[in-house]
Amino acid sequence: MSRFLLGILVLSSLCIPSLEAQELKLGAFAADITIPLGHRCMGILDTKALRIDDPLEARGFVLLGPDAPIVFVALDWCEVRNGAYDLWRDTLATVAKTTRERVLVCSLHQHDAPVIDTEAQSLLDSVGLVGELFDVPFHQACLKDVASAVKRAVAAAKPVTHIAIGQTAVDKIASNRRLVLADGTVSYDRYSRTAPDSPEALADPGEIDPNLKSIRFLSGDETLAVLSSYATHPMSSYGQGGVSADFVGLARRRRQFETPGAMQIYASGCSGDITAGKYNDGSPQSRGVLTDRLYQAMVRASNATVAHRIDKFAFRCESFDLPFHDGEPFKRDTMTAVLKNDKASTRDRILAAMGLASLNRIERGQPIDLPCLDLGTAQVVILPGESFVGYQLMAQRIRPDSFVMAIGYGECWTGYVPTQHAFEERFNHDWRWVGVGCEPILREKLSSVLKP
Ligand SMILES: [Zn+2]
Fold first, then answer.
1. What phi, psi does 84 have (nearest 5°)?
2. Which residues, at least 6 apart from 26, have a Cβ–Cβ distance to it below 8 Å?
3. Per-residue pLDDT, 129
4. Ligand 1: distance of its center to the CA of 304 in Å?
5. How far, in Å, from the CA of 106 to the mean position of ligand 1?
6. Is the pLDDT of residue 4 over 80?
7. Span from the CA of 231 to the centroid of ligand 1 (angstroms)
């Protein structure tokens, strides 16, 4: 430990009233959630899982404090939606003896990985498309395995004495999908891979959050767990049937080999409009390069951490509704007709089922939660779906005095959640289920969970 760091520890412990060490404990867990061969990837891709390039994992921690426990889990899956999102939270809440709102679930959003939506799959079952979105028994087995891992983590939890927070700029991964073309028009079409020397590769990165952030949970000198987050879509290539946690999972695994006693957990930031497109040609070599860049950032962020006693520990949660897409393809009658049409493509029928599941949820009056884990010097918030990076930057601006880690891909029924500016520039995509008007709602709710 550096003298500087030690100084901060001593100062902090002298000056700040703190929770007693034994009041906060952490247990970390991991479990395999790799899809079986033949499973659908990304909800709608034509090529199903042909081989397992590397495994998919659930990784997280349980925090046991003076109030009910808090569970955090990050899944190497594309998305978890609607009833499946509730099921994950309720299952882990039961085993950790806490409530749904205190279970924080996010996906990393890899594309050679599944989309899980129990209500959408039930609708698909009703028209004979059994197991086309996801494999129900496989999903139940994953829930059981992760619940068992959470139970073991609770039993093995150790006192948390400090957290260490750090960040570092990542070298050449993130770029915004938004491009201004030569004729002055705006395009949001810089996807995850581009040809070298193409206009997409040559254009500036645009609006990104350059930093990977890291929160280390310490028990004395021992690191129990590290939560790292960076805002980018996590794909180097996809759609060829090779199941993979992609470069973010590979970087995390490499880091894990070096820190066997500390659980390495990674979460994707708000990156609906962020991809590695500028720097990635989709080749296997490129996956290796992106893995190395992210891994190097994880190491640098860990080395740059400053330790603080946890003088304050709180949890807040706000809930809200987002407007549903008001376009014709998203009307109930239209989606129902597509779902029932056996001449329509399976892709379109799955999209319709997911839209109907979300519409049913909204009409039942079930809002989205915005949870905030407040560790005093750092706050962790989880935003819905493919929230644009503008929301992550907004969260930081709301608390410029603090270390805010904004994570994306919580409840994912929303698909893309554009900023007001992107709506005004007519950002559109068939993976967007929300309508205009998200930004003021998220701004208000972020302010209230981040600034109590
Ligand atoms: Zn995406």
1. -65, -35
2. 61, 62, 63, 64, 157, 158, 160, 217, 219, 224, 225
3. 98
4. 30
5. 13
6. no
7. 12
- Can you give the pLDDT at residue 13? 33
**Residue 311 confidence (pLDDT):** 80
Alpha-carbon distance 253 to 84, whole Å?
Answer: 27
Q: Give the integer Cα–Cα distance in Å for 412 and 79.
A: 6
Q: What's the CA-to-centroid distance between 436 and ligand 1, angstroms?
A: 19
350 close to 133: Cβ distance less than 8 angstroms: yes
Tokens representing 345 are 């493509």
Identify the pLDDT of residue 304.
Answer: 84
> 367 has which bridge partners?
none
Cα 4 from Cα 222, distance rounded (Å): 18
User: Each residue of 114-150: pLDDT tens digit?
Assistant: 999 999 999 999 999 999 999 999 999 999 999 999 9
Those residues with Cβ within 8 angstroms of residue 241's Cβ, 6 or more apart along the chain or in another chain: 41, 47, 48, 49, 50, 51, 112
78 Cα to the center of ligand 1, angstroms: 8
What do you get for the CA distance between the two ends of the chain, in Å? Answer: 34
Distance from Cα 386 to the centre of ligand 1, integer Å = 6
How far, CA to CA in Å, does 346 sit from each of 125, 146, 342?
Answer: 12, 30, 8
Residue for token digits 């950002």? 427
